[in-house]
Amino acid sequence: MNAKQLIAAVAVFAAAGSAFADVTGTFDDFTNVPSVKTRAEVVAELKQAPAPSQAANTEWVDSSTFIAKSSRSRDEVRAEAKEYAKAHKVNLDYEFGG
Asked: 47, 39 in Cβ contact below 8 A?
């Protein structure tokens, strides 16, 4: 590889690397936003807030309460599905994996 090819290769890699260094978002500067609370008010709120371990426990959702109870058996549901499949034509234009 001669010097011209080496310089050209370095230039191409530098251009490609700088293309990925572009900032995709905008920067919002919040340094000039006036505060609506005093430092004492913020400290008082922090003292009243629960400990992180307590706050984590309050967000637990018991998903077992969302499970719907069915009055039909599994065999009844399967029989209904088979009847529906027999009564309705399958559109083969939308068949995947076949």
From this structure: no
Nearest to 72 by CA among 82, 64, 61, 80: 80
**Rg from Cα positions in the chain:** 32
pLDDT in the model for residue 42: 92
For residue 65, which amino acid is it? T
Taking 50 as the pLDDT cut, the residues of the chain under it are none
Residue holding tokens 């549901």? 77
- DSSP letters of 40-91? HHHHHHHHHSPPHHHHHHTT---GGGGPPPPSS-HHHHHHHHHHHHHHS---
